[in-house]
Specification:
Distance between the termini: 61 Å
CATH class: Mainly Alpha
Radius of gyration: 20 Å
Oligomer: single chain
Number of domains: 1
Helix content: over 70%
Order of helices and strands: HHHHHHHHH
Largest sheet: none
CATH superfamily: Fumarate reductase/succinate dehydrogenase, transmembrane subunit
Mean pLDDT: 87
Number of helices: 9
Strand content: under 5%
Length: 235
């Protein structure tokens, strides 16, 4: 496998970089944008799975254009980390590029691990509900998860890691594909990538606020708590 990687190094790295932008990176921004509806109301958040569920063959679209590219990008990233060059061998890189090289690999590994947990906690619940003939209530699912405050912190870190990985990945993509050949254009690429990363953070944190700290989130928590208390007293 190592020989194949070295022989096809150019193609593999370009393919990995391309998938990181389209569709994986684009999906990240769209996902954060749609999730930010959670800060509006429970109904606005529920609109997301309800609307997407009406798209014909949405399951095939999700598998072919979202899940498989993410899986391929993630696994390929693990091989790149394993066979990657030691950054100390690249003294020509700038201070930011040296640290970005390291952080891109660390964030990629952590995001891939957290993404697996995210899929198990949300997407598999959605699939299970649909197979059982029920309805997937996304707000309730996340409320149950965030009942443990640890998961709020985990998802906040998840957003930060994913946003940086994508933002710096934009710089890497433009550099690898020869779009930014001058130092000035590379600086603009770094600034633009980090600006997009910041947008992802704002959208992601908006959704977390809506799910855990907003007025409608508090109402949902109080209702659940009251129902649980009433049932306990009844029994």
């Amino acid at each position: 496998m190592g020989d194949f990687y070295r022989t096809n190094y150019f193609f593999i790295r370009r393919l990995h970089s391309l998938l990181g932008i389209i569709p994986v990176g684009a999906f990240f921004l769209v996902h954060m944008f749609l999730n930010s509806r959670a800060m509006q109301s429970q109904e606005a958040y529920q609109w997301v799975p309800n609307t997407l569920g009406q798209v014909p063959y949405i399951w095939a679209i999700e598998i072919l254009f979202i899940l498989l590219p993410i899986l391929f990008h993630g696994i390929l990233g693990l091989f790149i980390i394993y066979w990657g060059d030691i950054n100390a061998h690249k003294p020509a890189l700038s201070w930011y590029e040296n640290w970005a090289y390291v952080f891109q690999r660390i964030t990629g590994l952590l995001v891939f691990i957290l993404l697996i947990f995210h899929l198990l906690q949300t997407y598999m619940v959605k699939v299970g509900a649909e197979l059982a003939g029920g309805h997937f209530w996304i707000f309730n699912t996340m409320q149950d998860l965030f009942a443990n405050p640890v998961w709020i912190w985990v998802y906040a870190i998840f957003v930060l890691l994913a946003a940086y990985h994508f933002g710096n990945g934009i710089f890497n993509f433009l550099y690898k594909w020869g779009i930014t050949s001058s130092k000035l254009s590379q600086r603009w690429a770094i600034a633009g990538g980090l600006a997009i990363a910041l947008l992802g953070v704002v959208l992601g944190f908006s959704s977390l606020w809506g799910l855990a700290f907003s007025d409608h989130a508090q109402v949902a928590q109080d209702t659940t708590s009251t129902t649980f208390t009433s049932e306990s007293q009844h029994h």
